[in-house]
Amino acid sequence: MLSKRIIPCLDVDNGRVVKGVNFLNLRDVGDPVEIAKEYNRQGADEIVFLDITATSDNRSTMFDIIERTANEVFIPVTVGGGIRTVDDFKNILRCGADKVSVNSAAIKDKTLISRAADLFGSQCVVVAIDVKRVPSKAEYNGIFKPDFGTNPDDFHVVMHGGRIDTGINAIEWAKEAEALGAGEILLTSMDTDGVKKGFDLEITNIISKNLNIPVIASGGCGCLEDFKNVFVETEASAALAASLFHYGELTVQGVKDYLKENGICVRN
Fold first, then answer.
1. Which of 33, 126, 139, 235 has its Cα between 20 and 30 A from that of 14?
2. Which of 13, 45, 51, 130 is the catalytic position?
3. Global model pTM greater than 0.85
């Protein structure tokens, strides 16, 4: 069995790490480089940087922060936000990142995934998929009313920080991203993000079982048991969390110790 990975996520806005609920009400957490150094010390398997307003603000991502972080930490770094071209991939990788995460731009131009995979290798290409449940129409006594069911069509891809519902079926998009050359999927449930009541096991399970590439579960982790549940009940390869680590409620090593005690293989 491959070891499961524990990945802290640093959402960055204007050079500072922030955290919110359902992508809203952002609070300042601290300096990204210093926080990354601490997670490196704790034994994180990787670190993900997401420049959460680069796309919506139509600006480039945080090259200086990436370069300074790469000089200070010794674990893989994934960077996303504001990625639009293969040149963006090249520049970020040159700054010291190991992987590049692309979201909105890949939806607008699917060839970005395949072109980046051809140039840099699939292992460098992470496709981030933000998912939101939408109500389907169910009939009650002859009247159609919204119903949040478990139909796969109820999961839509959203972009621009959840501001835009693309109407795209999240499961089909994940399959297509893999076919285009993505090496990994970063799957975030907008409904559970920051709520700390557990990962969205339903959509994580569906997508992870339908792909042959790793899926990182993201959004909603609130306690140690949530980490265990996502690995027991889905085929996710990694679990990503932010708030729990940022506010010192849990440490990466504490999570790994708990998982090992529960028979889940993690990296030392």
1. 126
2. 130
3. yes
